[in-house]
């Protein structure tokens, strides 16, 4: 499966994997800031964004997609950064292919199983409720979503998944029926097996419960060299609402720099 991918920067490869209902666009800002030190690849995972749809959706398939992605670009080894569901994909891949994983960074996702979150059910319900025959503008879609989702940042996150179809009609990019059917597999934890013994960073949002203190011991079982950092004011979407703290932690782990826009312009010689 050929995944739609954004690429920026130069240097050793760093692959960023988005979460459920996400897409590569969610990570462009972070990728740009790391692109002075790395060639950053931002793929849309299957059934998301502009990548193909498929009836099979589980971590084995997603990990295989990542393997095929790296093979097609002749990437022998890369730093992996995954958020939420993307973090679980990165964990699976690192455990199965440690020789192809230079370093591992997991953003707000633990190793265990968890229940389907109310927010995921609410997002799915809201997206399924949109009647694109009668709602033909982004403004109309947002107004409709507001009856289901109080948070405007979350509504805007959802609306990044809108696409324009022929004749101007709107539609959703994700394969909602398959994602809904696969929720039970998406929330599954890691199975006992191999360990990944290379540098690993877990970044948790202090206002999120995806990584609790009780989970730290289990994380260390799979990833003995894991460092676990908590951003107290960060939510599950910590890369968006705690960007500076997230960038600082990641860049320190990578021994690189998470440039801001001014620094990037200076580095490129722009005035």
Please tag this protein with its features.
two-stranded antiparallel sheet; alpha/beta; 271 residues; Rossmann fold; single chain
Task: Write the topology of this structure.
Layout (H helix, E strand, L loop, with lengths): L4 E5 L3 E5 L10 H7 L4 E5 L15 H14 L5 E6 L1 H12 L4 E7 L10 H11 L9 H8 L6 H8 L2 E3 L5 E3 L3 H6 L1 H4 L13 E6 L10 H7 L3 E6 L6 H4 L1 H12 L6 H8 L3
Parallel strand pairs: 2-3, 2-4, 4-5, 5-8, 8-9
Antiparallel strand pairs: 1-3, 6-7
Helix pairs in contact: 2-3
Give an overview in words.
This protein has 271 residues and is an alpha/beta fold. It folds into 2 domains: 5-114 and 188-268, Rossmann fold (3-Layer(aba) Sandwich); 118-181. It has 12 helices and 9 strands. A 7-stranded mixed β-sheet has the order 1-3-2-4-5-8-9, sandwiched between helices. A two-stranded antiparallel ribbon has the order 6-7. A hairpin with a 5-residue loop joins strand 6 (162-164) and strand 7 (170-172). Helix 2 (59-72) packs across helix 3. The longest helix has 14 residues, at 59-72. The protein is globular. The N and C termini lie far apart (42 Å).
């Amino acid at each position: 499966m050929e995944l739609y991918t954004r690429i920026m920067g130069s240097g050793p490869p760093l692959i960023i994997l988005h979460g459920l209902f996400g897409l590569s666009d969610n990570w462009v800002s972070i990728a740009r800031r790391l692109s002075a030190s790395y060639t950053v690849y931002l793929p849309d995972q299957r059934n998301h964004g502009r990548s193909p749809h498929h009836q099979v959706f589980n971590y084995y398939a997603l990990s295989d997609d990542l393997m095929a992605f790296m093979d097609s670009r002749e990437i022998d080894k890369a730093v992996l950064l995954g958020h939420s569901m993307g973090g679980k994909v990165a964990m699976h891949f690192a455990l199965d292919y440690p020789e192809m994983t230079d370093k591992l960074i997991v953003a707000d996702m633990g190793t265990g199983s968890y229940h389907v979150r109310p927010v995921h059910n609410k997002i799915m319900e809201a997206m399924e409720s949109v009647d694109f025959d009668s709602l033909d503008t982004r403004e109309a879609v947002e107004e409709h979503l507001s009856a289901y989702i109080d948070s405007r940042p979350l509504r805007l996150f959802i609306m990044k998944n809108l696409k324009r179809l022929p004749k101007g009609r709107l539609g959703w990019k994700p394969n909602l029926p398959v994602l809904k059917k696969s929720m039970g597999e998406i929330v599954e934890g890691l199975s006992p097996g191999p360990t990944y013994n290379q540098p690993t960073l877990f970044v948790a949002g202090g206002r999120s419960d995806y990584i609790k203190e009780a989970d730290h011991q289990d994380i260390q079982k799979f990833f003995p060299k894991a460092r676990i950092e908590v951003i107290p004011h960060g939510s599950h979407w910590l890369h968006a609402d705690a960007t500076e703290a997230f960038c600082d932690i990641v860049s320190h782990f990578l021994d690189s720099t998470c440039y801001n826009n001014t620094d990037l312009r200076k580095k490129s010689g722009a005035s």
